[in-house]
């Protein structure tokens, strides 16, 4: 059999082959229909694959080898901060006292876990310069929504119900306008200027008595630090609006600049990016939100408080927006982030930013002769180049991304941000060595050469992967997610 054609587990199935042995049943057998009302019962038994333990082990091991992860290769996916996740985090998160507690256990029995959460909140307060932090939100976008709901509650409490608009720059992360909409606001877009920064004149034009907040992604999705942040804060605050800082990419400013010091009222962080929670493939995240004093009453409840030596949940918070996530949030990710912060220490966290920014600038400058650089300025943790020049030769950014697969790299984020034509958003992160950066740069330079000399190599890539070009539209619009014999037959 061709190794490339890994059959489906259902196709490996042979009648009566089993992969387990259970002890003989020593309790009376019960009919399912005695336990579950008939309308909930399946009419037919599900068709489950019948395979041996070895079959199943080989099958999933083979599939797992097709994955690309940070542990297997370079992963410069812009805005996602695919840095290495230290394994000591995993050891700590697997300790019995953290991994095997129950969320409904009495607080007396989980004081250590609550203390870890409390300490993590303290560290994040210090890192962001905010007055209080909640660990409840499950991811970045969830943190955005939580923060906006607090801003909404704040304005409503002040009888300021006309404030229905949230201003979002066109260089913001895509989740920002989405969160504003889900939180019941109308989104107003402000343009970027020729430097790739928020256009202050445009901002002044749209701000007004109906402004609830400005949401700022900083560094913005071009990887540029918003230099006029204090002026922007002044414009929004003097109009009575609140300032929201999308801190998902805090890797760029960690231990160097704090949203609280810049005048922001709310900030969310992505622990699964900056603070080495493993992510990708939709795994659990954690998007803590920090707020200033006047938003504290609206924080999700319960709030973790310290009473003398004891950690407790405070439910008595009448103005709270309520719960946004059951139990302790994604506790395991919080344990990993705490471990990371404690093992790095303040100097280590500062070095993270310095190296992340250095790596990105090094790579940007070395690629600049070969690709178009739409904003020729120092970047922070990531940068955006354009494949415009290559497009003129008939090769699109998508082709370049596919060609990178042949070199064993995960491609950068492509066609984002929207304000760059044929954009490639590259975030090397601080954990990569100069050798790795150079190898990737060499691959990019080789591809740029191929585009000029033999473009079909790039247009027809990838050549070395298990599957070649997929029909991405059909895969997105009509995915086949369940096994059906007929579906496989035509497959
Ligand atoms: C990743 C990211 C988000 C969204 O975070 P999720 O955890 O994926 O919901 C928001 N803003 C920015 C700038 C990001 O990079």
Automatic annotation (TrEMBL):
It catalyses: N(6)-[(R)-lipoyl]-L-lysyl-[glycine-cleavage complex H protein] + glycine + H(+) = N(6)-[(R)-S(8)-aminomethyldihydrolipoyl]-L-lysyl-[glycine-cleavage complex H protein] + CO2. Its EC number is 1.4.4.2. The gene is gcvPB. InterPro entries: GcvPB, GDC-P_C, GDC-P_N, GDC_P, PyrdxlP-dep_Trfase, PyrdxlP-dep_Trfase_major, PyrdxlP-dep_Trfase_small. Residues 34-297 form the Glycine cleavage system P-protein N-terminal domain. It holds the Pfam family GDC-P. One of its GO terms (molecular function) is glycine dehydrogenase (decarboxylating) activity. Residues 353-455 form the Glycine dehydrogenase C-terminal domain. Keywords: Oxidoreductase, Pyridoxal phosphate. Belongs to the GcvP family. C-terminal subunit subfamily. The glycine cleavage system is composed of four proteins: P, T, L and H. In this organism, the P 'protein' is a heterodimer of two subunits. Its cofactor is pyridoxal 5'-phosphate. This is Probable glycine dehydrogenase (decarboxylating) subunit 2. Gene3D superfamilies: 6.20.440.10, Aspartate Aminotransferase, domain 1, Type I PLP-dependent aspartate aminotransferase-like (Major domain). The modification N6-(pyridoxal phosphate)lysine is found at residue 273.
């Amino acid at each position: 059999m061709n190794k490339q054609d890994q059959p489906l587990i259902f196709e490996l199935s042979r009648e009566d082959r089993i992969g387990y042995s259970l002890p003989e049943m020593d309790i009376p057998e019960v009919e399912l229909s005695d336990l579950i009302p008939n309308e909930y019962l399946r009419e037919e038994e599900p068709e489950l694959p019948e395979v041996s333990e070895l079959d199943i082990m080989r099958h999933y091991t083979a599939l797992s080898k097709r994955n690309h992860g940070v542990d297997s290769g370079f992963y410069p996916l812009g805005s996602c901060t695919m840095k290495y996740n230290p394994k000591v985090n995993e050891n700590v998160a697997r300790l019995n006292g953290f991994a095997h507690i129950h969320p409904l256990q009495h607080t007396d029995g989980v004081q250590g876990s609550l203390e870890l959460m409390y300490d993590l909140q303290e560290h994040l307060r210090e890192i962001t310069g905010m007055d209080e932090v909640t660990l409840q939100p499950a991811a970045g976008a969830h943190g955005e929504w939580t923060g906006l709901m607090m801003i909404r509650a704040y304005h409503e409490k002040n009888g300021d119900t006309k404030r229905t608009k949230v201003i979002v720059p066109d260089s913001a992360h895509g989740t920002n306008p989405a969160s504003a909409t889900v939180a019941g606001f109308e989104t107003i877009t402000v343009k970027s200027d020729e430097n790739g920064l928020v256009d202050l004149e445009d901002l002044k034009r749209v701000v007004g008595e109906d402004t609830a907040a400005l949401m700022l992604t900083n560094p913005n999705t071009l990887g540029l630090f918003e230099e006029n942040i204090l002026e922007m804060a002044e414009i929004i605050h003097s109009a009575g609006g609140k300032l929201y800082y999308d801190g998902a990419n805090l890797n760029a400013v960690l231990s160097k600049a704090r949203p609280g010091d810049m005048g922001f009222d709310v900030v969310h962080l992505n622990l699964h990016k900056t603070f080495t929670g493993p992510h990708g493939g939709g795994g659990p995240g954690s998007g803590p939100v920090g707020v200033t004093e006047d938003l504290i009453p609206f924080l999700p409840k319960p709030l973790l408080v310290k009473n003398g030596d004891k950690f407790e949940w405070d439910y008595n918070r009448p103005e709270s927006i309520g719960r946004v996530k059951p139990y302790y949030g994604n506790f395991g990710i919080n344990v990993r982030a705490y471990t990371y912060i404690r093992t790095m220490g303040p100097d280590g966290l500062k070095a993270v930013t310095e190296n992340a920014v250095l790596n990105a600038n090094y790579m940007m400058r070395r690629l600049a002769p070969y690709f178009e650089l739409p904003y020729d300025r120092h970047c922070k943790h990531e940068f955006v180049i354009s494949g415009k020049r290559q497009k003129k030769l008939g090769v699109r950014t998508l082709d370049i991304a596919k060609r990178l697969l042949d070199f064993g790299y995960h491609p950068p984020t492509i066609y984002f941000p929207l304000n760059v034509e044929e954009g490639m958003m590259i975030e090397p992160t601080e954990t990569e060595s100069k050798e790795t950066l150079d190898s990737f740069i060499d691959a990019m330079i080789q591809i740029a050469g191929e585009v000029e000399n033999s473009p079909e190599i790039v247009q027809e890539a990838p050549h070395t992967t298990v599957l070649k070009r997929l029909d991405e539209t059909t895969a997105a619009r009509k995915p086949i997610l369940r096994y059906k014999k007929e579906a496989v037959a035509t497959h």
